[in-house]
Design goal:
19% helix; 32 strands; 12-stranded mixed β-sheet; alpha+beta; 27% strand
Length: 627
Amino acid sequence: MRRQFAFPLFIFLLIGGLSKVRAQQTDSIGTHVPKPIFKNGQAQIVPEFSSEEDWIKEELWVETSFDSDNDGKLDRMHVFVTRPKQTESRELKLPVIYTSSPYYGLKISTIIRQAVFSKSKIFWKVKHEIGELPKSRKHSKLGTRIKRPLMSSYMDNLWVPRGYIMVYSSSPGTGLSDGAITMGGENESLAPKAVIDWLCGRAKGFNTRNGNEEVAAFWSTGKVGMTGTSYDGTICIAAATTGVEGLEAIIPVAPLTSHYHYYRSNGLVKSPGGYIGEDMDVYYDYINTGDKSNRKHNDATIRDSLLALNIDRITGDYNDFWDSRDYLNKIDYMHAAMLMAHGFNDWNVMPEQSYRFYKAAKEKGLPVQLYYHQGGHGGDPPFKMMNRWFTRYLHGIENGVENDPPVWIVRENSNSPKSYSSFPDSNSSNVILHLKSGNNGTGHLYTEKPDQQNTETLSDDYSINYSELHKSKNASHRLLYLSPVLQKSIRISGVATVTIRLACNKPAANLSVYLITLPWIEGKHVKIYENLITRSWADPQNHKSIRKGEPLIPGEYVQVSFDLMPDDQIIPEGKQIGLMIFSSDQEFTLCPKSGTQLTIDLNSTSITLPVVGGITAYENAVKNSQY
């Protein structure tokens, strides 16, 4: 965590001299009102704003335009504010950094208790046949945290001294906010919109949950930015896609942009990484910290009705319910600038979530910047990048951030991002690799399509982890095809696509596809990208449509095509790229009884890799090499 230091004012003036831009004004009684300081296009610490003891901390409730708990009253959102004391004079207005979350109502004891989700009784069982629904699960009973958000001190110390006001709100049905949790429903977009409307003078705020005494945001300039990670980042997207005026910039980190893509994959029932058996109704229970008197009604109308009838753990098909929870459908309303951040090895909220939305925002012509790293879930952009972004769009300082490199990627074994002109890299082009059977349970990948060849079959066994499947002793449970040993490193940048023609001996099966590197590196401190390039999952029953699956006819071939997760990775020399095809994945899919057989038609199966330098770079890397 960064520590902030408040130096005396004369030190700043002595060191900075005229290079710092600092505006002051005089109030009605002749005292100086400090204003934000800017240097090198970034907001600097203002000594007068830096004492936490002098900050004004208050809470209030903002009235929304909806009644999602159906109690006959418009829902009110619980809001916390932290602002410099100088704003109380009404001579100083500052922009707002706002974050909204479903987590603010969680007690620390609940977070600790649920830390190991895999042991939680509220999760769905996954050891059953595909197309079956296991017995009902247990529901959690949560208390409500009434203190300030857990991370507010960190955010306050980061931004308030730099001339911002911090605002926090609990999402509907959580904490001390009214309403119902709808897991991406319209009220979860309109709730942050209402808070922004209040910050801009267009909505009402009250000093109590049920009272009539109004509170005005007289200290707000009407310029608002949002940031947050995971579900908090999702709320940034939700607010922006309402088109609310005053929301100038967002910095979502690892956000969900589609709830379907979080819980399903190409028609397949999938768990988020690390949370096997979680689904939308499970998550509802985890954040259900709202008013206990409303929970029985909300549980009946939302969890046990709306969610139960629509999430469809039996088929995993896409439907209108899931479509209504895809923010890409509402991006035309968005006008806010966006700095998007994500990890290429985030297997909780997977990188397709950010990429699909970033790509659409870029195509729409919005000011966008992209920051990717090689790690897992979370990971803010560098503070300098965030500071420049908010300085430009909230304070209006012309720092040229729109001319900064549009893409930053942290390279392997590095902590510093490297700038690029685009993602995928503009020099990346598709290289199609075809499959050929081989000896010892391992085949080969060729740029030229081999002659007609026989099929190959694998037998499903979910008990074998993917990290063990590459070994020859497990060859019967997967198919593995390797490139020649790389004589030069190559860089993959973009989205790999796989096409598989297969037959199954049962009406349903999981399909898992991993792109790995060999030799496999063992050890406790091995980074995931040293063995895994990317992966994805699909339900062969959905080979025609993601909206409608159909049972497989045993022995009859179907063709399945789908994308793997976006990636930007350098594969070092001495490695082989491996395409590994198997069925059930114990970390992500349902786990039916072992023995299901998948037969792959090698003649109509291929993987397309986005290689920087294209076919020329790939062939140079494997020239004169052996398998």
